[in-house]
Write a structure and sequence with these properties.
The protein is α/β, with parallel strands linked by helices. The protein is built from 14 helices and 15 strands. The strands form 2 sheets. Strands 14-13-12-11-7-10-9-8-15 form a 9-stranded mixed β-sheet, with helices on both faces. A hairpin with a 7-residue loop joins strand 13 (384-392) and strand 14. It is globular. The chain starts with 9 loop residues before the first strand and ends in a 6-residue tail after the last helix. Bound molecules: NADPH dihydro-nicotinamide-adenine-dinucleotide phosphate. The site of NADPH dihydro-nicotinamide-adenine-dinucleotide phosphate has 20 residues, from helix 1. This is Glucose-6-phosphate 1-dehydrogenase. One of its GO terms (cellular component) is cytosol. It is an enzyme of class 1 (oxidoreductase). Pathway: Carbohydrate degradation; pentose phosphate pathway; D-ribulose 5-phosphate from D-glucose 6-phosphate (oxidative stage): step 1/3.
């Protein structure tokens, strides 16, 4: 790991490719501003935009306003100072000369500060169609010879095992693994880090985190929102590729991982890879697909069915809901289903993991029945970590009631999501980023079933906009031993 250089002899250039896009405006620039405001960025950091759209700094700054938060008004001098470090470059992604211009702009800034070393970060906030040409041109024209170069990649990481092989080969021919940052913002969540510590440092979890005690694990990513921006991309990729093959599989790996040999990054990533290798290929019988519809409410302008959106083909079979049951062939996890559930246009917005323990034999006559312990890791709408437990209801009678053992750390002002990930990229810490071979394993697990779904034109079950999703999904989870309370 290369820590942020404290000697003030290093200049940092942070380049955002595709800066005119939604991700750059809504996530990357707000995070950079918040880090700058909190004095967490290295001192000599300059930010560069690169995209085809000719952006004037003034207009770009205005475009960012809705996402930057109220703090910008509290300290206008600091906010202006942040923008004085941003430089806009435009260019075509396939034109090497335009990359040379970008490099000239970086060098000008690096020289201005009279720094001996230059570290560069290249953030590809771009759709995958231009990925090849951009990585190639960066490698040819933009690399620093006096410091490190980190390239940051966003999902989707290809479409299947075959296209990923091409992606990975191209990437690894151009960059070393230590330069590649495949981003997954779920991994920046404190609740996930905390779960890792809970598991390995507390005997009550260390000893029960296995198939002897755990009945089933459910990971849910539910959103009330329908498909909005990036509809064309979504219709081509579908919800399994969009969410399961990256975010949700990272959660599976973090939940099922064995204790790494050390806290070294590669030991951690080796263990994640090991567990992914033990996940069996998904079988079609373990998949349920859904698509939201408006259930005959033609006149409702808000709750529009998926195929009624003007930009979606009327005969689209793209799933907007999926449940997939994974099986891990290891001594620890054999017979514990990992149930992955994801959906759009549902009744609530919530991302959580429920580790459901087996029931006890406890049977007090006259008492209300007990529910099994459940460890709940909630990532949104706010981070929560609690254990559902049973206790005696106060009073003369032996009655049970459910309670929650609350485990979350609320008292820390920690950098969140993109801020934490950007800091790691500056610090050269790859712990919370995927290694390229992990994604290879994930595509091995999902590609056959995705191909079968497309080949057979599997029809998704229609569910009502704003509902809990297809009822068949509840039945499927129950068949695998998950209990809903
Ligand atoms: P956009 O579709 O908004 O694209 C970003 C920029 O890329 C555009 O402003 C445009 O810039 C350029 N671009 C778009 N289409 C093409 C094309 N066909 N050929 C060349 N350039 C193109 O994407 P987002 O900003 O939403 O996302 C960027 C990347 O991050 C994508 O890969 C996306 O999948 C991923 N991502 C996005 C998330 C989000 O919340 N938005 C979440 C997670 C991942 P210009 O024309 O000015 O060059």
């Amino acid at each position: 790991m290369l820590p942020i250089d404290p000697s003030n002899e290093v200049a940092y250039s942070f380049v955002v490719f595709g800066a005119s896009g939604r991700l750059a405006l809504s996530r990357i620039f707000p995070a950079l501003w918040q880090l700058y405001r909190d004095n967490r960025l290295p001192q000599a950091t300059k930010i560069f935009t690169f995209c085809r759209t000719k952006l004037e700094l003034k207009t770009f700054r205005i475009k960012c306003v809705p996402y930057m938060g109220l703090e910008r008004d509290r300290d206008p001098i600091l906010y202006n100072s942040f923008w004085s470090n941003v430089h806009c470059c435009d260019g075509q992604y396939d034109n090497p000369e335009h990359y040379a211009n970008l490099t000239a702009a970086m060098v000008r800034q690096e020289k201005r500060h009279d720094m001996r070393f230059a570290n560069r970060i290249f953030y590809l906030a771009l759709p995958p169609v231009v990925f090849d040409q951009v990585t190639l041109n960066i490698a040819r024209k933009c690399l620093s010879a006096t410091g490190w170069n980190h390239v940051v990649l966003e999902k989707p990481f290809a479409r299947n095992d075959i296209t990923y092989k091409v992606y990975q080969t191209q990437l690894c021919q151009t960059f070393k693994e230590s330069q590649i940052y495949m981003i997954d913002h779920y991994l920046s969540r404190q609740v996930i880090h905390n779960m890792f510590v809970l598991r390995f440092t507390n005997l009550i979890w260390a000893d029960t985190w296995n198939n002897k005690h755990i009945a089933a694990i459910m990971i849910s990513v539910k959103t009330e929102l329908p498909v909005q921006a990036r509809a064309e991309y979504f219709n081509q990729f579908g919800i399994i590729r969009d969410v399961m093959t990256n975010h949700m599989m990272q959660l599976v790996a973090m939940l099922a991982i064995e204790q790494p040999y050390s806290s070294n990054v590669e030991d951690m990533r080796d263990e994640k890879l090991k567990v992914l290798k033990q996940v069996l290929n998904v079988d079609m019988s373990d998949v349920l697909l859904g698509q939201y519809c408006n259930n005959g409410r033609e006149s409702d302008p808000v709750k529009v069915g998926y195929t009624q959106h003007s930009y979606i083909p009327k005969d689209s079979l793209t799933p907007t809901f999926a449940m997939v049951v994974l099986h891990i062939n290891s001594k620890r996890w054999r017979s514990v289903p990992f149930i992955l559930r994801v959906g759009k246009a549902l009744n609530e917005t919530k991302t959580e993991v429920r580790v459901q323990y087996k029931s006890t034999d406890c049977n007090h006559s006259g008492s209300s029945s007990s529910i099994p312990n459940e460890l709940v890791l909630r990532l949104s709408p706010r981070e929560q970590l609690f254990m559902r437990m049973m206790q005696k209801r106060p009073g003369p009678h032996m009655c049970l009631r459910e309670t929650e053992l609350d485990l979350i750390l609320r008292d820390r002002a920690l950098p969140i999501n993109y801020q934490a990930l950007l800091l790691d990229i500056f610090a050269g810490n790859q712990m919370m980023f995927m290694r390229t071979d992990e994604q290879c394993e994930i595509w091995r697990i999902f590609s056959p079933v995705l191909a079968a779904i497309e080949y057979e034109r599997t029809k998704p079950i229609l569910y009502d906009f704003g509902s809990c999703g297809p009822m068949a999904a509840y039945e499927m989870a129950a068949r695998h031993g998950f209990k809903f309370y």
